[in-house]
Amino acid sequence: MLLFSKANAPLAGQGTTRINTSSSQMMLKFSSVFIAVMLHAAVLSGANGADVSDEMAMLVGNTLTAVTWVPHSAAAPGGGALSRFIFQAYLRQNGVALIRVWDAARNAYTRPVERNWGLYGSRLCLDLPAPGPGRICAEVHSWGPRIAGIGTAPYVMLDGDLKPGNALFATR
User: Fold this and answer.
1) Which residue among 72, 86, 94, 121 is least enclosed by CB atoms within 10 Å?
2) What's the predicted TM-score (pTM) here?
């Protein structure tokens, strides 16, 4: 929003505009720093690219069966500091997973639904459907048939295993 008062309103007949060169110099410096940071990030991600692709390849086409603990919601029944969610996720290459969550109230898994997943370095993120907690992200420190990790924003613990194929529909 642009506000004018009589004190800073342009006078009648004044048609010149003065350019503040200090702000254009500041923008040039900002642009230079931004480009340098982006190039540095690109070099670092290129250096780690082989590790990430190996881990991503290990996850794609597998079913992750895991338990996750997240902070207990005040609206959720029960007590304690953490809530436990059990889920299965068939991880597809396109960043979409078939995910189902154990519904303790029904004593059964929910119907599988498509949700996003991604691997960002060693950070695994999954969007869990209800009654799950929603989006969880964990820094994975154990890879292979067993997978485990922790996250801090929000706090999450993840522990599970990987099996080849789609265990949700028993196809390999």
Assistant:
1) 94
2) 0.65
